[in-house]
Design brief:
271 residues; mainly beta; four-stranded antiparallel beta sheet; 10% helix; globular; Intradiol_dOase_core
């Protein structure tokens, strides 16, 4: 969800086309710095990304442009989500064993809890993830940049939360990848998360980042959350107690579904 009336905070810059990559990183940095300055001077608090964030050139194309209309969901949308030809299997949460061989890259575990705004666990939540491989490439027809495809890594997994709201995935740390927002634009390494509640109308999509990434300050998607504390909630913590001897590194990331500390959500997109 977006902050209320963010356009009251500053005069938005002119949004350009989705594939307009002529601008330099320096130009984007200047635009983001100006927006940050205006936000800090406004005295407002915004915990969600702005719908129109000019440095994110295609943001103008990624949200409704007309008034929303309420419609009742179809009956089928009120049943608990189910995907695939079978129930969710526990092995689907291990992305390193899914396709016949060992994938290339740094093996990691991501775990945490899904909580409501009062800190209570959200049980039996369907959690799905998708990500780029260690070279920063997705298994997707629109991703054609010259990085290798790993034949042993699909980049997708899913699990159900436990009674304590916990989830856990074993995967490969994704690499950063280029995108067409501007010249020499690179996305920080991240993992996409999708969560479903009790029906199809209850879905949240977000991204988890890794600590210390040098691309944070350069990325207009990450910076479209103008509040520093809200952005920081997207970054996982390294957890040495989760790391396993000579096997993998561990990260902890809790997801809060509601309240003032809720996790940032994104539109369903392919970035």
């Amino acid at each position: 969800m977006a902050a209320e009336n963010p356009e009251d905070t500053f005069e938005p810059l002119t949004a350009k086309g989705a594939d307009d990559a002529a601008d330099s990183q320096d130009q984007l940095d200047n635009e983001m710095a100006e927006i940050t300055k205006q936000y800090e001077e406004s005295g407002r608090t915004e915990t969600q990304p702005r719908l129109d964030y000019a440095p994110y050139r295609s943001s103008i194309l990624r949200h409704p442009t007309k008034d929303l209309r309420h419609t009742d969901p179809e009956t089928i949308e009120l049943y608990a989500p189910a995907f695939g030809e079978r129930d969710v299997h526990k092995l689907e949460s291990d992305l390193t064993i899914q396709d016949g061989g060992e994938p290339i890259g740094e093996r990691i575990r991501i775990n945490g809890r899904v909580l409501d705004g009062a800190g209570r666990p959200v049980r039996n939540q369907l959690v799905e993830i998708w990500q780029a491989n260690a070279a920063g490439r997705y298994i997707h027809k629109r991703d054609q940049h010259p990085a290798p495809i790993d034949p042993n890594f699909t980049g997708v997994g899913r699990c159900l939360t436990g009674d304590d709201g916990s989830y856990s995935f074993v995967t490969i740390k994704p690499g950063p990848y280029p995108w067409k927002n501007h010249q020499n634009a690179w996305r920080p390494a991240h993992v996409h998360f999708s969560l479903f509640g009790t029906d199809f109308t209850q879905r949240m999509i977000t991204q988890m980042y890794f600590p210390g990434d040098p691309l944070f300050a350069l990325d207009p998607i990450y910076q479209s959350i103008v509040d520093t504390e809200a952005r920081d909630r997207l970054v996982a913590d390294y957890d040495h107690n989760v790391s396993e001897h000579e096997w993998l590194l561990g990260y902890k990331w809790d997801i809060v579904l509601s309240g003032s500390n809720r996790t940032w959500t994104e539109d369903d997109s392919n970035v």
